[in-house]
Design a protein that fits this description.
EC number: 3.2.2.23, 4.2.99.18
CATH superfamily of the largest domain: MutM-like, N-terminal
Keywords: DNA damage, DNA repair, DNA-binding, Glycosidase, Hydrolase, Lyase, Membrane, Metal-binding, Multifunctional enzyme, Transmembrane, Transmembrane helix, Zinc, Zinc-finger
Family: Belongs to the FPG family.
Structural class: alpha+beta
InterPro entries: DNA_glyclase_Znf_dom_DNA_BS, FPG_cat, FPG_Glyclase, FPG_N, H2TH_FPG, Ribosomal_uS13-like_H2TH, Znf_DNA_glyclase/AP_lyase, Znf_FPG/IleRS
CATH architecture of the largest domain: Alpha-Beta Barrel
GO molecular function: 8-oxo-7,8-dihydroguanine DNA N-glycosylase activity; class I DNA-(apurinic or apyrimidinic site) endonuclease activity; damaged DNA binding; double-stranded DNA binding; zinc ion binding
Oligomer: single chain
CATH topology of the largest domain: N-terminal domain of MutM-like DNA repair proteins
Amino acid sequence: MPELPEMEHYKNMLIDRIKGAVITDVQINRPKSVNKPPEEFIHYVKQQQIIRIDRRAKYLLFYLDNGFILLLHLMLGGWMYWGTNDDKPKRTIQVQLNFRDNHLYFIGLRLGYLHLLTIEEANQVLSNLGPEPLSFNFTLNDFLEALANKGGKLKSALIDQNFISGIGNRYSDEICYQAKLLPMRSIKAINNKEAEMLYKAIQTQLKTAIESGGYLKHPFYKQDVATGSYEKEFRVHDREGATCERCGAKIVLERIASRNTFYCPGCQT
């Protein structure tokens, strides 16, 4: 499932291509991927200009000039492609937004969705999300205060979207590794020095992943070589049995918070 870095990478590429552009047509091949009857959805989206694109947690928000918002959540298996009819992927496309000769294809929206909402409805959907970890408003003191009021295991806290938004299974493993903390550590057992290491690891890990284009393997456009570049940078996630580059121990896999969790038992404490 795309996490904060992947969605931020998408946002940046979309701003370069469609901010200010007019949606000339809409195709809906899977009505369940949208929240309105296709005719109604198309009526409110077609011929609208995209005036702004934002990200909140793992969501993207496309602001239309008629006051509506397209709220995108890719969920498991979802991705996007920008291009022409000639170079579009040979995959089932659930929703398509046309911009004259180029189109934005939404692929793999079996669990994901593109919903047409008012600003008030969108705010309601996003109202329970925790703070953005890369926001300048999310300071170390804010993090320490939030952590002091949190219980359970570290892994569970990092993927809790009500606690901190945007971090999922992959990056939670990498954050724990960078902070040298075991993912099953009790939040209450983490001291202030370790919490500061954790805060810095969240910042560094997410920023680096964004700069490297995240981990998604599907290119966003025909000559895209940036998207997915971070896949080779993972140090523990999905590397069971590999040697830890930091201490030489073998990376192990354990089920934590109902998620496959990878860590190094040698240098994570």
